[in-house]
């Protein structure tokens, strides 16, 4: 898959205001109401990621879940990352 240009990435992130770019990845931290809710969000994201064959790095700290996305096989950010970020936003919204 083609890497996104800086312009394409900026345009994509305009629709994903909670995501931040850091080098070749984008990330978002989400605070869930409870620890079980955080784990359930991770489970839902894992199901979607498995279907998409695109897997985020996930860090869980009590109720805060941080997702980091990058298409490692392509060496940077692709449309897969923006698509999964939108999916994570949808799942986090409930």
Assign an overall shape.
globular
What is the domain tally? Answer: 1
Described by strand count, sense and barrel closure, the largest sheet is: 4 strands, antiparallel
Could you estimate the helical fraction of the residues in percent? 40-55%
GO molecular function, one term: 4-alpha-hydroxytetrahydrobiopterin dehydratase activity
Family: Belongs to the pterin-4-alpha-carbinolamine dehydratase family.
InterPro entries: PCD_sf (IPR036428), Pterin_deHydtase (IPR001533)
Organism: Antrihabitans cavernicola
Keywords:
3 helices; alpha+beta; 94 residues; 4-stranded antiparallel β-sheet; 4 strands; Gyrase A, domain 2
Task: Explain how this protein is built.
The protein is of the alpha+beta class. The protein has a single domain (6-93), classed as Gyrase A, domain 2 (2-Layer Sandwich), CATH 3.30.1360.20. It is 45% helix and 22% strand. It has 3 helices and 4 strands. The chain has helices at 6-14, 35-52, 79-93; strands spanning 20-22, 25-31, 57-61, 64-69. The protein has a 4-stranded antiparallel beta sheet with strand order 1-2-4-3, with helices on one face. Helix 2 packs antiparallel against helix 3. The longest helix has 18 residues, at 35-52. The radius of gyration is 13 Å and the shape is globular. Belongs to the pterin-4-alpha-carbinolamine dehydratase family. Keywords: Lyase. It holds the Pfam family Pterin_4a. It is an enzyme of class 4 (lyase).
């Amino acid at each position: 898959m083609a890497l996104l240009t800086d312009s394409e990435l900026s345009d994509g992130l305009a629709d994903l205001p909670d995501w931040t770019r850091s080098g070749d990845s984008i990330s978002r931290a989400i605070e869930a109401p409870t620890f079980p809710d955080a784990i359930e969000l991770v489970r839902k994201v894992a199901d979607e990621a498995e279907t998409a064959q695109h897997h985020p790095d996930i860090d869980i700290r009590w109720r805060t879940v941080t997702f980091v996305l990058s298409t490692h096989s392509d060496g940077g950010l692709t449309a897969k990352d923006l698509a999964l970020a939108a999916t994570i936003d949808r799942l986090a919204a409930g």
